[in-house]
Amino acid sequence: MMEKIDAHPIYIEPFHVDFTGRIFMGMLGNHLLNAAGNHSQRRGWGIGALNETRHTWVLSRLSIEMMDMPRQYEHCTITTWVESVMKLFTNRNFAILREDGTAMGYARSVWAMIDMETRRPCDLLSLYDGDILNYVVAPEENICPIEGHGRFRFRNAEFVRTIPTYYSDVDINGHINSIKYIEHILDLFPRETFEHGIRRFEIAYKAESYMGDTLSFFQQQNEDGTIDVEVRKNATEENPGEVVCQARLSIHHAEDGQQES
Amino acid sequence: MMEKIDAHPIYIEPFHVDFTGRIFMGMLGNHLLNAAGNHSQRRGWGIGALNETRHTWVLSRLSIEMMDMPRQYEHCTITTWVESVMKLFTNRNFAILREDGTAMGYARSVWAMIDMETRRPCDLLSLYDGDILNYVVAPEENICPIEGHGRFRFRNAEFVRTIPTYYSDVDINGHINSIKYIEHILDLFPRETFEHGIRRFEIAYKAESYMGDTLSFFQQQNEDGTIDVEVRKNATEENPGEVVCQARLSIHHAEDGQQES
Predict the structure, then answer these.
(1) Complex ipTM, two decimals?
(2) Are B61 and B71 in contact (CB under 8 A)?
(3) What's the rounded mean pLDDT across residues B200-205?
(4) What is the pTM of this model?
(5) Fold held by A158-256
(6) What was the pLDDT predicted at A2?
C-alpha cells in the first residue's frame, strides 16, 4: 500500500521572490498545486488519468497560513495528503517545511471533480469504486493546525480598479489561471503590506473567466483587521457582473516578529 | 578543471504553459536565467560571491529562437556556456534540448558586470585576475546556430497602451523584473500570434524601472515581417519618457509546420 502523505521538494528561485526576498504568495500557491497534482497523479487520480474518463479536478478553495515565508535560494518541502472525502468535495491539506523539518506554515484546499462535457460535479465516492477513500489519512496523521476556510460577506466593499486580461493570464484550458487571480489581488495592496508580510491568504473560486474578460476588484476592511477582496467579471455601471473569486488577507503585525528579515 | 558547459534540467509545469500547451516565452526566459545563474555560481561568479565584492551581473540582451517550444509535462535540458568575454560584456549562449538530446532551439545573451555602489560597468578581464577567461568554450564547442542580436530602429512605432506596475512586477532589487517585461510585451499580441507560435524573441534591456512606474508600449511592424516593441517609462504627452527595453518578435508562418500540435 502506497504511503498516504507525499513530500514534494521545492527550491525558491530568484525570480519567484518579492522585493523583501520572500516567495510570492502566488508562487507558493503554484508549488502547492503542483504538489497536489503529483500526489493525485501517483495514485491514478491525476489530470491525465481523469481526462481519459472525461473528468477533471476543479479547485474551489485554498487557504494558506504562514508563520514565515520561504526565502530566495531556500530548499523546502511541501507535504500533502487527503484529509477527507465527501460526495462532491474532497479536502486536501499541506504543510510547508523548512530543511530541518520544522513547519513554516500550512494550507487547506477543497476540490470538486467535474464531468468535462456537462461541467457538472461528480460523485467522488462512487468514481473508480470509491478508490479515493484509500488515500484518506487517519485523524492522527492530519496535522494542519490552521483554521478552516472562512465565509465571505460583502457588505461595504469599495470598487478599487478594473483590469483587462491578456495572453499571460490564461492557462491551457483557456481560463484565467488560479494563480494569476492571486497575483492580481495582491497587486491591489501597497508596499507596506508586504513589508509586514501576509500571515494568511484565503481564496474561494466561484466561476471561470476567460482571456479578454475584464476583472473588477472590490475591497472591504473587516472589523477583525482582515481585508476581503471580491473579483467580478465584465461588470458595468448597469450590471454588477459575475463573481469570479473572493479572497481574504491577514497581515502580520509588527509585534508578531516572525517576519523580520 | 571544471567542464565549461553545464546541463540544467527543466520540467514544464502545468501553470507555465499557455493556452496552446507550450511554455510561455517568459517562463522559458526564467529557466534560461536560472541556468545562467547556476553556471556562474558553480564557478565562483554567482550573485552571492559577487555581492561580497559589491558587484552584480546585469542582463543586457537576450535572444531566443525556437524551432519548437517545450510542452506541458515535458522534461528538457538547457545547456549553457560562455562564448566570449570582452572588457565590458560577456556573451553567454544556451541550447534547449529535448529528452533525446535533439535541439528545440537556442538562445544568446549579453551580460555586463556593474559595481553596486557606483552602478558603473566593471572590467571583466581584470576582475578576479581574469578568471572568467578560464570558462570560455573553444569555438568548436560553441554550437549556437542562430543569428546575433539585432539592432532596433524605431521610426514609425505606434502607441499601444500604458500600464501601471505593481507588487508582482518587482524583483528582490526593487526593479521591474526582466521576465515581467517579456510577459507585458507578449500581452500586446492577439490570440492568433500564439496559435502560430513565436519563432524568435529578442529583448534589449536599456534602463531599470521601479514599482509604481507606468510603462508605455509602442509597436512597429517591420518590412521583414518582424514586429518591434519599445517600452518607455513615465512617458506623458509632453515627455517621451525613458526607453526601458526594446523587443523584436518573429512569428512562425503556417508553412513552417514545426509548431503543429
Answers:
(1) 0.93
(2) no
(3) 98
(4) 0.94
(5) Thiol Ester Dehydrase; Chain A (3.10.129)
(6) 72
